[in-house]
Design goal:
The protein is an alpha/beta fold. It has 5 domains: 11-86, GMP Synthetase, Chain A, domain 3 (2-Layer Sandwich), CATH 3.30.300.90; 117-406, Rossmann fold; 416-440 and 675-794, no CATH class; 467-666, Rossmann fold; 807-870, Winged helix-like DNA-binding domain superfamily/Winged helix DNA-binding domain (Arc Repressor Mutant, subunit A, Orthogonal Bundle), CATH 1.10.10.10. 44% of the residues lie in helices and 11% in strands. The protein has 39 helices and 19 strands. Strands 6-7-5-8-4-9-10-11 form an 8-stranded mixed β-sheet, with helices on both faces. The model is unreliable at 1-8 (pLDDT under 50).
Length: 881
């Protein structure tokens, strides 16, 4: 353990006691070993052969000072022959991880640092040990272990050994359906006794196969008969840490190094404060899965247990001392309306238990109850079944427990060729890699075209027959616009009519708020609608952009010899609108241009910010965009070779009210990243620009088309992703980096932004460059931990983009969430904080993805804040329930 009692006997006191006993018992061999309760003193003397135990005690007590006697908690007074049965005292007896020491630790000071196995970049040297424990029975502990074991072996392909250490009430063999296969003198109890008596049992003789695939094994407690009961009385867990050969340690070490060589060892512990449970939890386990039901009786003991775990260190030799990693299973959760409240109560308890250790993990972020707590709903079929079925449906509620365990299972060694190439090329790759985090408007033209990935989604949305493209901020609307503007759509010539403000090639006729205000005034003076303006603007853009159109002459005399700059363009538009025949003349010119046969795609983007941000500006924007869409619907049937491509923000589209809006229901596409492989291609396309990374990919698959990322299959994406950032995530809810990134970068609606993905990898690359100077890592170019430590740097710009660029009216909701400080949050809390018309703001916050409903069955709905925004809002899951 990390600390000892302050009043433990010091060396001088031990030497004084040894001198006294040696003087009292002639020719005695005396050993005094400190442990958590004081002193264990063993006296071995031939003279004891002629007297009984009481007389031996009187002998050593004769003249012993009371202060010295009080320090001794156990005497072993033995003859040389008797001592052979006890074995040698361990020099490490002072580290006995019993319950007294555990609870002293629970009440002690917070340790300076905590490191879990899942915090390490390197794998554990041997199979991890995971102990399933519960303070009270009836909470599904053994069922959870068996279900997790079946998933680990069947879904993850791991070799799993389960050890039944609930010796007083064993049952793993029954749950696995192998109780009839357990022989006499077979099992954990028999093996431990053999170790205690100095024998060297073959652990494989005590193991029973569970499946035919050779991946799941059980070491049962033993066969329940009269012999078992006698053996149980003979077992002495208290002596394990007093002897040089620790029976528990020997059992664990032998199963790890046996021919079975399990990938992971799962141990079912006795409930309560049994002598066996303490060393399992506080000494041999790398992870402790603590099962409890959120009843008040379970709270104090489980809290003390948690604090003791977090102040303990395992026996595992490592570069740094490792702490048993806690995980919590709340079970069984009853059905009905109370389930959500009970689950929140349990998570709030856990958050409170963890709070004192918030800064103890160094640069690794503090533990979160949401990440390490899982709720298992009550299932009558499981509860009343003698065995745990192998059916996927019944095992599904335990999948998350298996994912926790996978995080600390050593990964298979990488292919030698890949390992050599990664090791040799990583330094160069770190120098050459670059993940641009700028917006699509600002990227250099050549750089943009190099990086842009033409995915299936791009091809679908770029279809000329789809006039309306919808998408959230950051989902790639402007990137699609730039690709189309660069001539990406084969056979079609682009004409930029309206562009984002920061677009480098922005034409003079792409306007801002002042221009649109002047045009609005002109429309009102001439009693025209916005459709007339867009018709005039489109003809001006074609005339100025498209060479052959010049053969038709100017659409209107006012456009002849137009000067440079947006003022000149605005002046011309106003003059055309002032001419009663001006819009009609432009419409006629547009039909003649269409008849020339050149296929033109008219591009409209940047409409969200072009009109300004005030309420009046937004009303003007709604009218203008409604007019544009109405004009497109009016002109489309009459135009064969001129098509409109209008890119509109999703929330703006929902707010529009105009006649025949339903016309676009079949003529629009939403930019939404539905396939993670397509999403990951965004970052991989940038990565392959680094020559050193391309060389690393050559070791992954020499047939991989290095630069044609868009054509990669899901398997090829997975291989390249693993080379870039590794396969598994450690210390997090999800076991795989791909799942972690996909889940963490999703907003409340499940939408994903390529910008956030690139920002995450840019921050991870920066962190990895510095970390590589301190400690090398050669399994992938970026270690998975770099992602976890970089998420916070993505959250702030994501929230800023949401509130500053899209939904300024949601700032009050953000402030309310920030003030409340935790997630989930009840609808009643938000309503009270928001004041007037809170329903409108809450609905908008859902639509924007700032919050998401997690419970709508009760009288009051609950909402969660997605991780993408949670860090920026300083929202955690904690607080009393």
């Amino acid at each position: 353990m990390k600390e000892m009692r302050n009043d433990m006997p010091d060396r001088e006191a031990i030497e004084e006691l040894v001198r006294h006993v040696t003087a009292a018992v002639p020719e005695a061999e005396v050993h005094a070993v400190p442990d958590s309760s004081g002193l264990l003193v063993r006296v071995v003397a031939e003279a004891f052969a002629s007297v009984g135990e009481a007389e031996r005690k009187q002998w050593v007590d004769r003249g012993l000072p009371a202060t010295a006697a009080a320090r001794v908690h156990s005497w072993e007074l033995l003859t040389p022959a008797e001592a052979q049965w006890y074995g040698d005292l361990s020099a490490d007896a002072g580290r006995t991880p019993g319950w007294p020491l555990a609870f002293e630790l629970a009440e002690g000071a917070t340790p300076q640092d905590i490191t879990f196995a899942s915090d390490l970049d390197d794998d554990l040297a041997s199979a991890p040990v995971v102990t399933f424990y519960s303070l009270k029975g009836g909470v599904g502990r053994s069922t959870a272990l068996v279900a997790a074991a079946r998933r680990l072996s069947s879904e993850h392909g791991l070799r799993v050994l389960c050890i039944d250490m609930d010796l007083e009430a064993p049952g793993l063999d029954t749950l696995f359906g192998i109780e009839g296969e357990v022989g006499s003198d077979q099992g954990v109890l028999s093996a431990l006794l053999q170790y205690e008596f100095g024998d060297e049992p073959s652990v494989l003789q005590h193991v029973v196969p569970v499946d035919d695939a050779g991946r799941l094994y059980c070491m049962p407690a033993g066969r329940l008969d009269s012999t078992y009961a006698a053996q149980l009385r003979s077992l002495e867990p208290e002596i394990w840490y007093r002897e040089r050969v620790n029976a528990l340690h020997k059992l664990v070490d032998d199963v790890r190094t046996s021919n079975l060589r399990p990938d992971v060892v799962l141990i079912d512990s006795r409930t309560g404060m049994s002598p066996v449970a303490a060393p399992l939890l506080f000494d041999v386990s790398d992870m402790a899965v603590v099962c409890f039901h959120p009843h008040g009786q379970a709270r104090p003991g489980t809290e003390l247990l948690t604090k003791a775990l977090l102040r303990s260190t395992t026996r595992r030799p490592a570069r740094v001392a490792l702490t048993p990693e806690p995980r919590f299973v709340v079970s069984p959760m009853p059905p009905g309306l109370s389930a959500a409240r009970l689950a929140e109560r349990a998570k709030s308890w856990v958050e409170g238990w963890l709070e004192p250790f918030g800064t103890a993990r160094g640069e690794a972020r503090a533990l979160s109850a949401e990440e390490i707590t899982h709720v298992v709903p009550y299932n009558a079929d499981v509860a009343f079944s003698d065995t745990v079925a192998t059916a996927g449906g019944e095992l599904a509620p335990y999948a998350r427990i298996a994912d926790w365990i996978v995080q600390i299972v050593p990964e298979p060694a990488p292919e030698p060729a890949l390992h050599r190439r990664t090791s040799a090329g990583k330094a160069a790759a770190l120098r050459q890699l670059s993940f641009s985090t700028g917006t699509a408007e600002l990227l250099d033209h050549e750089e943009f075209l190099q990086d842009y990935v033409v995915t299936r989604q791009v091809n679908e949305t770029a279809d000329p027959d789809v006039p309306l493209i919808l998408g959230r901020k950051g989902t790639g609307k402007t990137a699609l616009f730039r690709w189309l503007a660069a001539g990406g759509l084969a056979g079609w010539k682009p004409v930029c009519v309206a562009t984002p403000n920061q677009f480098r090639e922005r034409p003079d006729w792409s306007f801002g708020p002042e221009n649109y205000a002047a045009i609005d005034a002109a429309l009102n003076r001439n009693r025209l609608d916005w459709g007339a303006f867009w018709q005039v603007l489109a003809t001006l853009a074609i005339y100025r952009t498209h060479g052959p159109a010049a053969d038709l002459g100017a659409p209107h005399p006012a456009m002849e010899g137009i000067g440079p700059g947006d003022y000149a363009a605005t002046r011309v538009i106003v003059d055309v609108l002032a001419d009663p025949m001006g819009p009609l003349q432009c419409a006629d010119w547009l039909r003649r241009a269409d008849a020339q046969g050149d296929r033109l795609i008219l591009l409209f983007d940047g409409l969200d910010t072009a009109f300004g941000h005030s309420p009046d500006h937004r009303r003007l924007r709604s009218a203008a965009i409604s007019g544009l869409l109405t004009k497109q619907a009016d002109l489309a049937p009459r135009l064969k070779n001129v098509r409109f491509k209008i890119l509109v923000r999703q929330d703006i589209w929902h707010s529009l009210r105009f006649e025949n809006k339903s016309h676009f229901y079949g003529l629009s596409r939403r930019l939404q990243w539905e396939e993670r492989e397509e999403y990951f291609k965004v970052v991989l396309k940038r990565a392959v620009r680094a020559e050193a990374f391309r060389e690393i990919l050559g070791a992954v698959n020499d047939q991989l088309p290095e630069t044609d990322v868009a054509s990669w299959s899901p398997a090829q994406v997975a291989a390249a992703w693993g080379a870039l950032v590794g396969e598994r995530m450690r210390g997090e809810r999800t076991a795989f980096t791909s799942n972690w990134v996909w889940n963490r970068l999703a907003d409340g609606n499940g939408d994903h932004s390529p910008r956030s993905l690139l920002q995450l990898f840019a921050a991870a690359l920066e962190w990895e460059r510095e970390e590589e100077k301190r400690s090398g890592y050669d399994r992938s170019v970026l270690r998975p931990r770099s992602l976890a430590l970089s998420l916070e740097r993505v959250s702030e710009p994501a929230l800023s983009a949401l509130l500053d660029e899209e939904f300024q009216e949601l700032r009050d909701v953000a402030n309310a969430l920030r003030e409340y400080g935790r997630t989930p949050v009840g609808e009643d809390v938000l309503e009270e904080a928001l004041g007037k018309t809170p329903e409108d703001l809450i609905g908008l916050a859902q639509e924007a993805g700032l919050i998401a409903v997690i419970d709508s069955d009760g009288a009051v709905r609950s909402f969660r804040v997605p991780d993408l925004y949670r860090w920026a809002l300083s929202v955690t899951r904690r607080g009393p329930m």
